[in-house]
Amino acid sequence: MAVLKLIFIILSICGCWRPSSWSLSFYKCLVYNLYTIFVAFIISSQALSQMINICLNANDSSNFSDDIYIFLAILVACFKMLSLVINRNNIVNLTVTLGQEPYQTLDNMETNIRIKFDKLSRFNTRSYAFLITLSVMSFLFLSLITDFRKRQLTFRTWLPFDDNMTPVVFYLTYTHQMLAMTLGAMIHVALDTLICDFLINICCQIRILENRLTNISNERKTILKLCIRHHECIYRFADVVNETFKFTIFVQFLASTLTVCFTLIQLTKISATSLEFIKMIFFMSGMLTQVYLYCWYGHLVTLKSQEIAYEMFQTNLMELSTDIKKSLLIMMKRTTMPIVFIVMNLFPLNLDSFMSVTFLISSLSLSQMIGIAVNADDSSNVSDDIYVFLAQFVSCFKMLSLVVNRNNIVDLIVTLGQEPHQPLDDVEMNIQTKFDRLSRFNTHSYASLISLTVSNFLLLSLITNFKKRQLTFRAWLPFDDNTTPVVFYLTYTHQILAVTIAAMIHVALDTLICNLLINICCQITILENRLTNITDERKTILKLCIRHHECIYRFAATVNKTFKFAIFVQFFASTLTVCFTLYQLTKVSANTSEFIKMMFFMSSMLTQVYLYCWYGHLVTLKSQEIAYEMFQTNLMELSNDIKKSLLIMMKRTTRPIVFIVMDLFPLNLDSFVSVSIFMMITKCCNSSMFYDCLRFQILKTAYTFVRICVSFSACCVVSKLLLKNDSLCGKFNICGCWRPPSWSLSFYKRLAYNLYTIFVAFLVSSLSLSQAIGILVNEDDSSDSSDDIYIFFAELISCFKMLSLLVNRNEIVNLIGTLMQEPYEPSDDVETRIQVKFDKWSRLNTHCYVLLLSSSVASFSSLSLVTNLTKRQLTFRAWLPFDNNVTTYVFYLTYFHQILAFIIGAALHVALDCLIFGFLIHVCCQIKILENRLTKITNENKPVLKLCIRHHDCIYKFANNVIKMFEFTIFIQFFITTSTVCFTLYQLTKVSPISFECIKILLYMCCILTQVYLYCWYGSLIETKSQEISMTIFNIDWITLSDDIRKTLLFMMKRTMKPIVFVVIRILPVNLDSFVSVSIPIPIIPERRFNTLSIMSLILGA
């Protein structure tokens, strides 16, 4: 609390916090209010003048990057000051709350905990203030010795008077700029440390709560009540902090990302030995530290809140009464939903978000610096050498890791041959054999790939370099290049031998780590087999399972600790290596042996990272499945003691085995995807086509369009039941994908409809095929290709969607029939009203989506009629099997074919998208009905409990059937949409923002983005809804229920720990995180110089 006083003093200096002693005097209040207005005017006027200057000089890209990074920092300071003034009362309430019960310390132990966290807070505040002070002082000092002596202002700004100002006016303006920067920095320090201090106080309260939990006993039941109330208050306090500062943190994240990007660009323009360079480094460190502090303490709060459950295990549970155990179990269940600070309902405040920000910064700016370095005077030599150097460099680290950790590796291998890891029966031996085969196959495949790569290098070197007496790799030598043949042969052999041995080291360590991970999966499978053998007569198996479970976790922790540094170096170097390899691929022909060599090399590097991520991900999934394997045991026939032990063991599995590399990023498929995205972005940005300011402009444009889609789809939070949506069935009929039921009885009607289906399929597929051939024939003309390909992608997806509808017709009928049966069918008026509510939303959602796509199709068709048709040009460029100078009759037929295929393709999009959305929202509807049924559970109404359990299981099965049926179609949609929007954005740079063409493309891109967003939105909604089931169970009257019902509900709550997540092809979850991931690569498109003001006007217009 003492630290808060220091922060409030800084806030008082900034004009954001009137001292308490001044509140009693009217004149002092008036003076301070005037001072607040003065500070606000100083900062806001500086930001406004900089913004006007940026707009007036937008065409000057060099000045643009010089000015905007400071402007963004000042602008955020304005937002922070506004936030402090508006939220003053909330901040006061939060501060007062921390001094009240139950937050107040009760004994010396809790006081010591408070003092410890106060020291951390004080250190954090002083360190951050020192860093910001250094940054400001470097600006001031450098300005005084350079700008001031030349009578130049520190920052370029628009001034309401002539530049040839008098000395007095210059000094006043100069002082105004310096004062604005200093006050802005102080506001940054004040609010950032205030928020971090609140987060630290939450961690402190959690630590105090953990201390209180250890004091619970049968004689001190009042402590249990205090702990429950304290736990609830901590969650409520965290919610208030999040609600108070969420907008400020969002603005900070957005501005800091852009600011650091422009700062990095500035660093490429100045010498590394200059004072300007040091100034920029301090400034960038300050901006990154702002984001990092928020993420670090937000992440710390989340981890601390998860640890509460594990602290309960330290209490003497066995000696506590049954009532206390039950209360602790319910409290433990609450901790499975930890405190997570979600900024503007968009992204969590944790280290993953910080890593995402740094990846984005790297992709937008650091890649430019690499590109500049690569395109230096001798760029070919640099890029040719460095990718092999990095691979050799990693092999050195791997060899060092193997030598240093030799004893640890031996201990790990010996451990796997000892009890409880050793197989005990034939079933476990079969499991071990199965995983041994997988491990052997993995080793042989990986070794073959590396061997092929090395062989390609050696073979190509022998038939090219060796014959010309050239070394395989360029390297510095301690002797003259014109060496004797003996020296050359020795040097050549040294290089070849080094590459071969390094490749063997890569194979050895990579397969060793992967095999250890496979063995962890094997041990988990053996544990699951043992769990199924637990009975009341074989209690020793339960003890063995508990010990085995603990040993598996300990073994995994040892593996992670042993190899974490080697894996980190592998990730870091592989990213850079593949970047340079991709760059090399742009310099060689695709039909040369050099190209094949590079492809093998890149495949090997990517495989290295992928194997780590895949098996790390597999271990995490396997460790999560242990709890669900317990459900397969005959729980109802087991004794209460065994049930309680299994419950505690299940609770342990809620924290799965996750390999965290250097405490920075998890070893899973998400990390691999992030690395892959970074590689592709860096490669694209390093090429000559991606250098100017277009990337930043396109990023802003893409963000605007995403925001449009969010605004549109947010209106349809919960929408639609398919079954009663007659308009959707009509669209299926029109598309030739769904024969009307009345036509099924007549042979001739069935034949006619089948012929119509073939006709529709021919129309859509023939347009896609002709466009594909046209693109391939005109591949040399990049302008034509970019015009054609984005429409071709949309038509291609419609072909896949039609195929999906035809293939899965019977399964769709079965799903629809299932929804009309028990337990899905509403059983009373309340459930019917829920169904009707979803019906209304369904109809609205379908109509809105159809309207959006119809507007896009209409804009294309009408624009084509008033432009192409009058000039006798086709709407889309495509290959035709006849001469372009066709007769009028043939032209009209071809033109009509393209328009009709385009319209039917759009109808197919509407039909299948609305079908999938309908199924997803029906899952939400069923969850809502289930929640209503749960509230009716009583001791007298036990059949409702059985119905709820069956209904819950049926909902999960239904969701699995939906995703299994459409996962390939959704995957194609995601994959192609990314490329489509890239080409669409590129098209926008070639048209005027006030033209019909621009409106047409904007509508088209909104449709494409809306498709993906709706999938992600409803997938995310289902995930959230399925997690809320456990919270509904909390709200029922637990106290009056019998023990049997409580236990059953506890198991049901445990099932909800694994929510319904739609994972496409086991790679991509269908949620908002995936939508953000898809939108990241969108700005990476080829450069085309254009007027910055026109794009800014486009963004503002959007």
UniProtKB/TrEMBL annotation:
<feature type="transmembrane region" description="Helical">
    <location>
        <begin position="595"/>
        <end position="615"/>
    </location>
</feature>
<feature type="transmembrane region" description="Helical">
    <location>
        <begin position="657"/>
        <end position="681"/>
    </location>
</feature>
<feature type="transmembrane region" description="Helical">
    <location>
        <begin position="753"/>
        <end position="777"/>
    </location>
</feature>
<keyword id="KW-0552">Olfaction</keyword>
<feature type="transmembrane region" description="Helical">
    <location>
        <begin position="128"/>
        <end position="148"/>
    </location>
</feature>
<feature type="transmembrane region" description="Helical">
    <location>
        <begin position="1001"/>
        <end position="1021"/>
    </location>
</feature>
<keyword id="KW-1003">Cell membrane</keyword>
<keyword id="KW-0716">Sensory transduction</keyword>
<feature type="transmembrane region" description="Helical">
    <location>
        <begin position="446"/>
        <end position="466"/>
    </location>
</feature>
<dbReference type="GO" id="GO:0005886">
    <property type="term" value="C:plasma membrane"/>
</dbReference>
<feature type="transmembrane region" description="Helical">
    <location>
        <begin position="789"/>
        <end position="807"/>
    </location>
</feature>
<feature type="transmembrane region" description="Helical">
    <location>
        <begin position="245"/>
        <end position="265"/>
    </location>
</feature>
<feature type="transmembrane region" description="Helical">
    <location>
        <begin position="168"/>
        <end position="191"/>
    </location>
</feature>
<keyword id="KW-1133">Transmembrane helix</keyword>
<feature type="transmembrane region" description="Helical">
    <location>
        <begin position="563"/>
        <end position="583"/>
    </location>
</feature>
<keyword id="KW-0472">Membrane</keyword>
<keyword id="KW-0675">Receptor</keyword>
<protein>
    <submittedName>
        <fullName>Uncharacterized protein</fullName>
    </submittedName>
</protein>
<feature type="transmembrane region" description="Helical">
    <location>
        <begin position="701"/>
        <end position="723"/>
    </location>
</feature>
<dbReference type="GO" id="GO:0007165">
    <property type="term" value="P:signal transduction"/>
</dbReference>
<feature type="transmembrane region" description="Helical">
    <location>
        <begin position="68"/>
        <end position="86"/>
    </location>
</feature>
<dbReference type="GO" id="GO:0004984">
    <property type="term" value="F:olfactory receptor activity"/>
</dbReference>
<dbReference type="InterPro" id="IPR004117">
    <property type="entry name" value="7tm6_olfct_rcpt"/>
</dbReference>
<dbReference type="GO" id="GO:0005549">
    <property type="term" value="F:odorant binding"/>
</dbReference>
<feature type="transmembrane region" description="Helical">
    <location>
        <begin position="848"/>
        <end position="869"/>
    </location>
</feature>
<dbReference type="Pfam" id="PF02949">
    <property type="entry name" value="7tm_6"/>
</dbReference>
<feature type="transmembrane region" description="Helical">
    <location>
        <begin position="968"/>
        <end position="989"/>
    </location>
</feature>
<keyword id="KW-0807">Transducer</keyword>
<feature type="transmembrane region" description="Helical">
    <location>
        <begin position="486"/>
        <end position="509"/>
    </location>
</feature>
<feature type="transmembrane region" description="Helical">
    <location>
        <begin position="386"/>
        <end position="404"/>
    </location>
</feature>
<feature type="transmembrane region" description="Helical">
    <location>
        <begin position="1060"/>
        <end position="1084"/>
    </location>
</feature>
<keyword id="KW-0812">Transmembrane</keyword>
<feature type="transmembrane region" description="Helical">
    <location>
        <begin position="277"/>
        <end position="297"/>
    </location>
</feature>
<feature type="transmembrane region" description="Helical">
    <location>
        <begin position="889"/>
        <end position="912"/>
    </location>
</feature>
